[in-house]
């Protein structure tokens, strides 16, 4: 029987996950299908149940279902519970097991692909929605220094800080105070402003030439923030494509017990030529 996997989202047609998982499966010589299933918020639970009934073994979950997915799980990993959202579901006897590979995907992309040391970095996290929840615990575990969470709606920043539960290290501030917080070593844009063509006003004084700026989005959606960071003098500005590929590899490993090599698909998707060691 062919193994069945899928990504659920709304919209989901643009998702790169089917292409990434197909590449991993080819690389690992694994027979599986991986489809994109579009389900609106009212239909998500039903669509997921139908997928399970049809033999679905695992799923990735993208916007806007990551929170709902965790609620539908009968068990979940500690990292999914800490994040409060699930992006990976594994079919187990009796129900779905929820996990979250977004945070580890981000940390792996930065520390392994980009060879960056995140430890002790004074960090600003912009946004407090699902994406911010997904990555915050992993950033703490990666050893960053103080974490400042700033969100347009302050209550959500407070809720995220409470969920992380490290009051000595994690602080919330108002958006209007961004200009008074000093400089940061690491700024993560976890807002959806770029995806929604929303305006974001950010003071350039937060950035030095050593600041690492990361947008969790990729493609067009990441352009405004990364262009702002570069114009403010930041020399390292990285989009979320590497994170996407790494979280997929981690999901693949959870499902199949195999860790695929991510260099080739990352290079293909980022449109860069890859210098693969061919041995000749
Ligand atoms: P996601 O799953 O991508 O995080 P989300 O849960 O809807 O999506 O969260 C979107 C985040 O982007 C929120 O932090 C939101 O701020 P609010 O909580 O105030 O809504 C933030 N956001 C969206 N547009 C923004 C804008 N133009 N300026 C600043 N923050 C914005």
How would you describe this protein?
This protein has 280 residues and is of the alpha/beta class. It folds into 2 domains: 3-100 and 242-278, 3-Layer(aba) Sandwich (Rossmann fold), CATH 3.40.50; 103-239, NAD(P)-binding Rossmann-like Domain (Rossmann fold, 3-Layer(aba) Sandwich), CATH 3.40.50.720. Helix content is 36%, strand content 20%. The strands form 2 sheets. Strands 2-1-3-5-6-4 form a 6-stranded mixed β-sheet, with helices on both faces. Strands 9-8-7-10-11-12 form a 6-stranded parallel β-sheet, with helices on both faces. The longest helix is centred in the last third of the chain and has 16 residues, at 241-256. The chain is globular, with a radius of gyration of 19 Å. The model is unreliable at 273-280 (pLDDT under 50). The protein binds 2'-monophosphoadenosine-5'-diphosphate. 2'-monophosphoadenosine-5'-diphosphate binds at residues 63, 127-132, 151-153, 156, 190-193, 196, 198-200.
Features:
280 residues; alpha/beta; Rossmann fold; 2 domains; 6-stranded mixed β-sheet; 6-stranded parallel β-sheet; 10 helices; 36% helix; globular; disordered C terminus; binds 2'-monophosphoadenosine-5'-diphosphate
Low-confidence stretches: 273-280
User: In the CATH hierarchy, what is the architecture of the largest domain at level 2?
Assistant: 3-Layer(aba) Sandwich
Mean pLDDT: 95
What's the total count of β strands? 12
What's the shape?
Answer: globular
CATH-defined topology of the largest domain: Rossmann fold
Give the ligands present: 2'-monophosphoadenosine-5'-diphosphate
Query: What count of structural domains?
Result: 2
**Tell me, what is the CATH class of the largest domain?**
Alpha Beta
Instruction: Determine the fraction of residues in helical runs and give it as a percent range.
Output: 25-40%
Largest sheet, in brief, is: 6 strands, mixed
Strand content: 15-25%
Strand order of the largest sheet: 2-1-3-5-6-4
List the helices and strands in order: EHEHEHEHEEHEHEHEEEHEHH
Query: What structural class should be given to the helix and strand makeup?
Result: alpha/beta
Rg (CA only):
19 Å
């Amino acid at each position: 029987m062919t193994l069945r996997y899928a990504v659920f989202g709304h919209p989901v047609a643009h998702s790169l996950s089917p292409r990434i998982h197909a590449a991993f499966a080819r690389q690992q010589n694994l027979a599986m299908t991986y489809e994109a299933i579009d389900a609106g918020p009212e239909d998500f639970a039903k669509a997921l149940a139908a997928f399970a009934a049809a033999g679905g073994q695992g799923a990735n979950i993208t916007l806007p279902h990551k929170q709902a997915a965790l609620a539908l799980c009968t068990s979940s990993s500690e990292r999914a519970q800490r994040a409060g959202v699930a992006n990976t579901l594994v079919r187990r006897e009796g129900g779905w097991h929820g996990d979250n590979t977004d945070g580890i995907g981000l940390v792996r992309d930065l520390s392994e692909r980009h060879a960056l040391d995140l430890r002790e970095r004074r960090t600003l996290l912009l946004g407090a929605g699902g994406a911010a929840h997904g990555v915050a615990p992993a950033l703490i575990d990666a050893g960053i220094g103080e974490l400042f969470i700033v969100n347009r709606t302050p209550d959500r920043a407070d809720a995220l800080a409470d969920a992380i539960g490290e009051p000595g290290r994690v602080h919330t501030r108002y958006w209007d105070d961004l200009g008074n917080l000093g400089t940061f070593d690491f700024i993560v844009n976890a807002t959806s402003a770029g995806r929604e063509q929303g305006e974001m006003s950010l003071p350039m004084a937060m950035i030095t030439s050593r600041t690492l700026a990361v947008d969790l989005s990729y493609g067009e959606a990441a352009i405004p923030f990364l262009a702002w960071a570069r114009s403010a003098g930041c020399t390292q500005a990285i989009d979320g494509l590497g994170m996407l590929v790494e979280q997929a590899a981690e999901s693949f490993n959870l499902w199949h017990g195999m860790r695929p090599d991510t260099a080739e698909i990352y290079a293909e998707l980022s449109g860069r030529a890859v210098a693969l060691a061919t041995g000749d």
